[in-house]
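Subject: sequence -> structure tokens, single chain

Hey, anyone have a minute? Need the predicted structure for the following. Not urgent.
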Amino acid sequence: MFWLPFLSRPPRFDWLQVEITTACTAACIYCPRTVFREAWPELSLDRETFARLAPIFPGARYVHLQGWGEPFLHPDFFLFLREAKKAGCQVGATTNGMLATEAVLERCVAEGLDVLAFSLAGTDPGQDEIRRGTRLEQVLEALKTLARLKAARGASTPRVHVAYMLLASRLGDLARLPRLLSGLGVAQVVISTLDFVAAPELAPEVVEDSPVLAATLARLRREAGARGLEVHDRWSAPPGRVGPCSENPLRALVVAADGAVSPCVFAALPPGGGGGGPVAHRLSFGNLREQDLMAIWDSPAYREFRRALSAGSPPPVCRSCRKRSHP
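Reply:
Had a minute. Here:
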């Protein structure tokens, strides 16, 4: 008998995304944290709430310690890393790179962080205007430092990824990406698009399918492949890879910094932010501070959500989401 994710407890989660903080040192123009800055709450996951995940970790393949904030701002980042690793999970995080000092990167190597992704949105200093509060040159320097530290220890981890936000106005940057990252120890580039449009003025930055895009991506894959760099994007992903949504809500979930449990990070924006905007559509099925995680996962409401999503009739918050339509 095969597993029906909306009816019973899963044998394993593919991943758990644990948002340890909503605070950040950057102010990226496309980020909800920037758009809703007037009402955005800065929250941090406490040790007691994180500890409630301990029984679940052995049933998760991967734990990602990041949500809408910068994980290295949390003073307990390495404590959380150790606890998840102790349970046998692979653990990763995404950083804007501004706090990735040599000391921090040394600890990432020493304590066995499996994946560290660095966020970018361009291949020249113009990206610093998009990802305000960050500097491309500083990110590149951090990548060099991490490669050196891994070589000194003979370490294969953390595997280094680049989380690349592709905006319509910066489509031409893709051609320069393989050369920019060459020799920096980057194993994989994951290209995302602006699927969550937090403000109307950002709509022109949504990347739509076109012959120019297809040609640009084909060239990128050729050049990246020649340099041993993997490229992952929605256009080349196998159809149906994670079910009805690329955020994989049938086999994964998000724990927000306030303990709320949501199907994906786009439904896990903090309460209060946005003043009635998209954040008002937060979708949570319980709070880890009040309930056992598996009790939340197996609750009638959460099971019905997964059933409806699988049947093609999800709740309003999901109906227009581009993540549903992308492979």
